[in-house]
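Proteins fold reproducibly. Take a sample protein:
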Amino acid sequence: MAKGRVSRDDWTMAALRALARGGVAAVAVDALARELDVTRGSFYWHFENRDALLVAALETWEQRATTDVIAALRDVTDPSTRARALFAEALGSEEIAGLEPALVAHTAHPAVAAVVARVTQVRLGFLTEVFAGLDFTPRAARHRALAAYAAYLGWLELRRTSPEAAPEALLDDPGADAALDHLVSMLQTPVRPQAAKD
């Protein structure tokens, strides 16, 4: 990239990569300027201060990883196809590997906490809607949404921390599609009532 010719989006994406690598502390203007091969002055052309960059980066993540994904999936009318497409998208290629677990791990920072809370609420709401479309009761749909979101976060964490122990969580593993299909099937299958005890 040509020196001095970076956009606001270049800065926000660099900040998100830094967040994935080292959390909030890694979002340092001088380090990002070096990464982008620009002067510190380029930063001030786009942002008032580091906090403004952090907020912009978090809002970019929210837009791309939640708002845009949900908008695209609203066009999928078949409930079962929508559920499979949602998980395929969510657990597919990560634009920035390790970003979501890093954000969850840094919710002690107020800006991160606010965006992660908002994103979690929106995602759980959409997941509940997806499961309600599969004819689960409102309560069961909410419970499935919670289980599905916990599975999603755990899947990403396995991918990041334990690729040898859980290679199916990796995108290029031969068993990845089958493992994803199994997860989606489990989440869509109603729980059988327990037999009455004698």
Q: What stands out?
A: The chain has a mean pLDDT of 90.
